[in-house]
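Thread amino acids onto this structure.
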């Protein structure tokens, strides 16, 4: 298999942010993530769409942080034996 070098001019800022994002998603390098992307694209396995990211308000972020702390500390958390038991517990309040 012959290889070719693909050169794409990008800003340093974009490269650094992309490297960070690639590492956060488990890639060993930005190059690896690009190879995977190109491989999937060439096989027709990608559907590309652009949507704005969901951004939580500071109040909502704080609320979810509290919920996660409750879950981790097993505070305000319950369990149910089955669906009927769950519905019964939900209707208690």
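Threaded sequence (93 positions):
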């Amino acid at each position: 298999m012959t290889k070719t070098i693909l050169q794409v001019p990008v800003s340093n800022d974009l490269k650094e942010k992309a490297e960070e994002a690639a590492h956060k998603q488990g890639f060993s390098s930005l190059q690896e993530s690009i190879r995977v992307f190109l491989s999937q694209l060439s096989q027709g396995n990608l559907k590309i769409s652009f949507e704005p990211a969901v951004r939580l308000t500071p109040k909502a972020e704080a609320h979810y942080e509290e919920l996660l702390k409750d879950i981790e500390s097993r505070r305000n958390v319950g369990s149910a034996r089955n669906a009927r038991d769950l519905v019964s517990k939900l209707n208690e309040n």
